[in-house]
């Protein structure tokens, strides 16, 4: 796992194309252009700007040159909040192998030890048991349920809310 680079746009577009059907029930409806190298390059550039501002990091999980997962630590807020949001997915061919659990645990440790954050939040669809297990293994606790929280797969859907506190 490493920070995505500008040159990763072709591999990222390929990963999204390969996982389009697999991710469709877990993500917002995407326009066709989302799956292009140009769109992914522009998105990586936006996330580079966020990283330079200290507001987020976009990481890729790789098997050789192939991207098999994406993890975003976003919306970093400093001051008294010291918090960020976490989103992620793993390639359907690699799901269920513990890769997401290991990656999320590494992100939690880096957020605490390197970024000095106090808290990370994440959310899952109510029926996304796999993602809930990933978060629980990394020390997250469920803190509530948000009705109609995000528009996923074309409809507003309820989400379980989780957080992990990084400092006592």
UniProtKB/TrEMBL annotation:
Keywords, in A-Z order: Acyltransferase, Transferase
GO CC terms: cytoplasm
Entry annotated with the keyword Transferase: yes
InterPro entries: Acyl_CoA_acyltransferase, GNAT_dom, N-acetyltransferase
Start and end residues of each N-acetyltransferase domain: 17-167
Keyword Secreted appears in the UniProt entry: no
GO molecular function per UniProt: protein-N-terminal-alanine acetyltransferase activity
Superkingdom, taxonomy of origin: Bacteria
Entries under Gene3D superfamilies matching the protein: 3.40.630.30
Family the entry assigns: Belongs to the acetyltransferase family. RimJ subfamily.
Name of this chain's protein: GNAT family N-acetyltransferase
Gene source species: Arthrobacter jiangjiafuii
Phylogenetic classification of the source organism: Bacteria, Bacillati, Actinomycetota, Actinomycetes, Micrococcales
């Amino acid at each position: 796992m490493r920070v995505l680079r500008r040159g990763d746009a072709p591999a990222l577009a390929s990963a999204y194309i390969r996982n389009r059907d697999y991710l469709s029930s877990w993500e917002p409806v995407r326009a066709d252009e989302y799956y292009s190298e140009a769109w992914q390059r522009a998105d990586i550039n936006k996330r580079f700007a966020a990283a330079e501002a200290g507001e987020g990091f976009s990481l890729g999980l790789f098997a050789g040159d192939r991207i098999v997962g994406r993890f975003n630590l976003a919306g970093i807020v400093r001051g008294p909040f010291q918090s960020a949001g976490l989103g992620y997915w793993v390639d359907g061919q690699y799901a269920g192998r513990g890769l997401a659990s290991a990656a999320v645990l590494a992100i939690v440790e880096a957020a605490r030890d390197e970024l000095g954050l106090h808290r990370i939040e994440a959310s899952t669809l109510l029926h996304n048991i796999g993602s809930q297990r990933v978060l629980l293994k990394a020390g997250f606790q469920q803190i509530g349920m948000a009705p109609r929280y995000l528009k996923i797969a074309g409809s507003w859907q309820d989400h379980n809310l989780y957080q992990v506190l990084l400092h006592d």
